[in-house]
Amino acid sequence: MDILIKEEKGFRYIESGAEQGKTLMLLHGLFGALSNFEGIINRFSKQYNVVVPILPIYEMPIFEVSVVGLVDFVTRFVQYKGYDKVNLLGNSLGGHIALLYAIAHPDKISSVTLTGSSGLFESAFGTAFPKRGDYEYIKKKTSETFYDPNVASKELVDEVFGIVNDRNKAIRVVATAKSAVRHNLGDKLHKLKAPTLLIWGKQDNVTPPFVAEKFNELIENSRLYFLDNCGHAPMMEKPDEFNTILEAFLAEVTAAPVGA
């Protein structure tokens, strides 16, 4: 995917710049990459100003590495860019960050979309990494993220393997994962009033379907869609179905009168 990454004032991000388009901001997960959102970027860039800030998970000072630290980063980014209201979409850890941001800044939110979000329960690598250099293990764990293991391309496995085998990155991944577990949102979700879309893989084994159902129960203005034969990253594994649901939701939200 050939996308220009902008670098300004300590922020790295991509922005489609659709003229007069509503802003659709995408927040990636712990092992996320811009390629994870390729289908969304391609589908929505002509209608929306699609923005993907690259979360500084591996660059933050170790004492700042946390879910809260990443929410602060997103807050500064939105302020820097001067966005009025945003449609937030988050996958995995990105969903967790989106929720915390939306609850803290309701005046900045048009809608929230969550897919495979952490914040209630998640089961990933755990609190420690396997022995360094174990490529086959990382390949297996990465493949298990998807219903179809072939979605885990060699490029994706190589990227995850590189993170795991970089000591500084690995420490920050573990610290962020532990922080996410500590910041359970079960007692905060009632504060989220923005229209919320939940798109979940029926075969998600990281944030299983019961997690989506609990989000749907606790978020007042939410609707839930399950995609079959799909794992933890529906926007990658079922891009057409995912984007069709998202497109209809965003069209409805952006067409609604202010205050509706």
List the helices and strands and how they pair.
Elements (H helix, E strand, L loop, with lengths): L5 E3 L2 E5 L6 E6 L10 H7 L3 E6 L13 H15 L4 E6 L1 H12 L4 E7 L19 H9 L10 H11 L2 H16 L13 E6 L7 H10 L3 E6 L6 H4 L1 H17 L5
Parallel strand pairs: 3-4, 3-5, 5-6, 6-7, 7-8
Antiparallel strand pairs: 1-2, 2-4
Helix pairs in contact: 1-9, 2-3, 4-5
Textual characterization of the structure:
The chain is of the alpha/beta class. The chain has one domain (6-255): Rossmann fold. Helices cover 39% and strands 17% of the residues. It has an eight-stranded mixed β-sheet, with helices on both faces. It is globular.
How is this structure best summarized?
The chain is an alpha/beta fold and 260 residues long. It is built from 9 helices and 8 strands. It has one domain: 3-Layer(aba) Sandwich (Rossmann fold).
Structural class: alpha/beta
Query: So how many helices?
Result: 9
Low-confidence segments, given as residue ranges, are none
Helical content stands at 25-40%
Tags for this entry?
globular, eight-stranded mixed β-sheet, 260 residues, alpha/beta, 8 strands, Rossmann fold
